[in-house]
Amino acid sequence: MFELIFLGTSASAPSIHRGLSAQVVLHNEYRFLIDCGEGTQRQLLKSGLGFKRLDKILITHGHLDHILGLGGLASTFSRWEAIDHVEIYAGAWALDRVKDLLLGVVLRGASSLLQIDFVELEPGVIMEDNRFRLRAFPVSHRGPDCFGFAFEEKAHRPFLAEKAEALGVPAGPERKILVSGEPVTLADGRTIIPDDVLGEPVPGTKLVFVGDAGRTDDLLDEVQGADTLVIEATYLDVEADMARKFGHLTAAQAARLAVEAGVRRLCLTHISRRYRESEVFAEAQAIFPEVQVARDFDRLKVLKQKA
Fold first, then answer.
1. 307 in a domain, yes or no?
2. Is 168 found in the same domain as 276?
């Protein structure tokens, strides 16, 4: 399971009710901040998340409404918070802008114990453990080196307790060993192998996050079968020409992608002040019923959905 908390859902400039782009993904012991628009640190505090363990920051692209909050966050971390190490992942162009902001302005000449690792993104796996994988993939927007992110639980084989009982496998460490993929020898000398007590592989949960994007045809493979797709919907179809001009999507485009990719749930963000939320929702829902328009401080639990 993944949990997603929206901190900022506005497009380009904040509104009364929406802050600039930022969201946190929680998975087991991990916390990932995706983008860090102006005002993000205050949104973190208001959300109740705070700064604890917030040491991995993923940047979709280098436009200012997605990175300016890094300045204030780094300043706070370096002076007040018990965080001494942060990893910032971004494409080359975005990473240069982030370095200019943090090293050239915020921390310039300062004595700080905060260690920042700047990690240049390339398409592929960013990190993984035995339970999940985080991948970056290219996204077409204005400017180079834009990325989306796929959070994927690895497939697992469910433990079949009834089979274990029938075979006389006692509750305890023997079952844990079998789940890990190793055979066990019982007290009576019989050897039980994992295939005896494990079911067929079950796909894990998949959450895909796409920031600003100007087209969807190159995203189809990446978002295929996602349990939840989060993606921008800056414009409505009535202004599709303007959306193309500025490298953004309409709500209808996002919904059509969800249909084509077999997504279970669609969540729209990066909402422009030029439209009412109800208009964005209506345009998308007419094409893809399982849709919602994100609001600041919304919390989503992303679970594996049954077909």
1. no
2. no
65 is catalytic: yes
* Distance (Å, whole) CA 243 – CA 128: 35
- Tens digit of each residue's pLDDT, the chain (307 residues): 999 999 999 999 999 999 999 999 999 999 999 999 999 999 999 999 999 899 999 999 999 999 999 999 999 998 876 688 999 999 999 999 999 999 999 888 777 778 999 999 999 999 999 889 999 999 999 989 999 999 999 988 888 999 999 999 999 999 999 988 899 999 899 999 999 989 888 889 999 999 999 999 999 999 999 999 999 999 999 999 999 999 999 999 999 999 999 999 999 999 999 999 999 999 999 999 999 999 999 999 998 865 5
Residue 94: other Cβ atoms inside 10 A: 25
Nearest to 229, CA basis, from 203, 204, 254: 254
Cα 137–Cα 214–Cα 256 angle in degrees, nearest 5: 90
Query: Closest Cα partner for 154 from 209, 80, 204, 207?
Result: 204
The number of distinct structural domains making up the chain is 2
Residue 265, domain member (yes or no): yes
Q: What is the CATH classification number for the domain harbouring 37?
A: 3.60.15.10
Annotated active-site residue in 55, 65, 212, 296: 65
Q: What's this model's pTM, rounded to 2 decimal places?
A: 0.89
Residue 288 lies in a domain: yes
